């Protein structure tokens, strides 16, 4: 029992530190975050307190308003923090890989299954919708990478649906902040055993970057593939 309490006490400072760090990072991109959160909390609490006085139960409604004020503030903070994070990642090579890495349970993601020296890259995710190829980079160049990878998938796993998405803000592209939602909305057609079998078959192929370390998250701008390195397939 004492050990559980000690672990909980140790975890709380970590959570608070993480929240503080997230707030600082969000504030760099969203200067009004403090004012917005304060306004949401005060208005929510004020509305419930006012209703409490009107119906003759200010204490009960005040407590409820306080709890809902914390909840509303947390929801708004989470959304604005997410928006700020996507804003900072958008346009950077590897941003889509960072989103795929956090897509959730039931998905197996492999970053950079195809790449060229200009940092145009194709990532792969396998889940209940089948195989999803996510491309990021120059729209004109990345289409050839995507087409080649999709052709290979159709040849190796012809019985599995293959979807392709291009991350960007242009017509027919998917915004980075909507990538996860778009993938989760795809029709689910594979069962658990089918997903496992598909992953096993793809794993046997090996990936373009299997012998080359790839930093997690967005890669720094200006970084180029070394000469003589892997080429697009």
Labels describing this entry:
233 residues; alpha+beta; elongated; disordered N terminus
Give the topology.
Blueprint: H1 2-29, H2 33-55, H3 58-89, H4 95-100, E1 108-115, E2 121-127, E3 130-136, H5 139-156, E4 162-167, H6 179-184, H7 192-205
Parallel strand pairs: 3-4
Antiparallel strand pairs: 1-2, 2-3
Helix pairs in contact: 1-3, 2-3
Task: Explain what this protein looks like in three dimensions.
The protein is an alpha+beta fold and 233 residues long. 55% of the residues lie in helices and 12% in strands. The chain has a four-stranded mixed sheet with strand order 1-2-3-4. Strand 1 and strand 2 form a beta hairpin. The longest helix is centred in the N-terminal third of the chain and has 32 residues. The protein is elongated. The N terminus and C terminus are likely disordered.
Q: Would you kindly provide a brief summary of this structure?
A:
With 233 residues, this protein is of the alpha+beta class.
What is the 3D form?
A: elongated
User: Segments where pLDDT lies below 50 for 5+ residues?
Assistant: 1-11, 207-216, 219-233
Number of strands: 4
Mean pLDDT across the residues is: 78
Give helix % range: 40-55%
Radius of gyration: 23 Å
DSSP strand content: 5-15%
Pattern of helices and strands: HHHHEEEHEHH
Biggest sheet: strands side by side, in what order?
1-2-3-4
Major sheet: 4 strands, mixed
